[in-house]
């Protein structure tokens, strides 16, 4: 990464293709999720090193409960294990961890792990790694509207944003989806209003910092007009 490039403040990624990656290698889908978790670590570290402030990663959607029970259980265990292992790494690298999504559907144990990781990393001043967990954008917006009502706030963009799970986090600059699918799958619909979109064929477990460098270079060549001329 050369120095002259403007580094985006907020990168969001739909980490897709773990299952197909595994299948292409004759492995079980779960092996793809395990490999994917390693890439979460390396991409987080890289983004922190180059000065990205927020990295929001789609790890489990409100729709993913439709998957076979065994796969869902595996993902829950992997998440718990990942967060516990990662705590030391977050602290060493000055990374803050934050979860978005409706966490109430998770087991008490997992909710506890998430909360502890958030609390213990809350003083970090480098990158914030935001994991979207049981996250659905429509669900988030509905919950935000309910909060607006409870607080009897006026319906304004600012007030609604202050009730979203992403309150305090700026809108997305770069939105990436891996694995060749070209859709948002209920991800950050509000926050992606003016994001620059990137779709790559690469399955998430094969995604590298070099590919991210190419995306950031491309981002630098795009003119973001935000409606002006
Ligand atoms: C993304 O990979 C990870 C999660 C949704 C948890 P997938 O599991 O969707 O992989 P594909 O799309 O089936 O290949
Ligand atoms: C989106 O991927 C959710 C995550 C990456 C966590 P999916 O694989 O679940 O999305 P669809 O079903 O292909 O739209
Ligand atoms: Mg998928």
Give the SSE layout.
Layout: E1 10-14, H1 18-24, H2 29-50, E2 54-61, H3 69-92, E3 96-100, H4 108-120, E4 128-135, H5 137-150, H6 157-163, E5 174-177, E6 196-199, H7 209-221
The structure holds 3-methylbut-3-enyl trihydrogen diphosphate (IPE) (2 copies) and magnesium ion.
Characterise this structure.
With 229 residues, the chain is of the alpha/beta class. It has a single domain (10-136, 171-219), classed as Undecaprenyl pyrophosphate synthetase (3-Layer(aba) Sandwich), CATH 3.40.1180. It is 44% helix and 15% strand. The protein has 7 helices and 6 strands, in the order βααβαβαβααββα. It has a 6-stranded parallel beta sheet with strand order 3-4-2-1-5-6, sandwiched between helices. The protein is globular and about 50 Å long. The two termini are 30 Å apart. The structure holds 3-methylbut-3-enyl trihydrogen diphosphate (2 copies) and magnesium ion. The site of one 3-methylbut-3-enyl trihydrogen diphosphate has 11 residues, from β2.
């Amino acid at each position: 990464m050369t120095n002259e490039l403007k580094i985006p403040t907020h990168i969001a990624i739909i980490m897709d293709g773990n299952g197909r990656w595994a299948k292409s290698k004759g492995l079980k889908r779960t092996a793809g999720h395990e490999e994917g978790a390693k890439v979460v670590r390396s991409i987080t570290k890289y983004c922190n090193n180059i000065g990205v402030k927020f990295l929001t990663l789609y790890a489990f959607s409100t729709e993913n409960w439709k998957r076979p029970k065994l796969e869902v259980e595996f993902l829950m265990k992997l998440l718990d294990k990942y967060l516990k292992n990662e705590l030391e790494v977050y602290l060493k690298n000055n990374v803050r961890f934050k979860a978005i999504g409706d966490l109430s559907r998770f087991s008490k144990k997992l909710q506890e792990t998430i909360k502890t990781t958030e609390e213990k990393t809350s003083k970090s001043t480098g990158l914030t790694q935001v994991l979207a967990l049981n996250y659905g954008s429509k669900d988030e917006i509905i919950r935000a509207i309910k909060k607006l009502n409870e607080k009897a706030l006026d319906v304004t963009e600012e007030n609604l944003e202050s009730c979203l799970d992403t309150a305090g986090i700026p809108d997305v600059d770069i939105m990436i989806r891996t694995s060749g699918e070209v859709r948002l799958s209920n991800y950050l619909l509000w926050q992606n209003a003016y994001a620059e979109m990137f779709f790559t064929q690469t399955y998430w477990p094969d995604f590298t910092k070099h590919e991210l460098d190419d995306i950031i270079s491309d981002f630098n060549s795009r003119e973001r007009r935000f409606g002006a001329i």
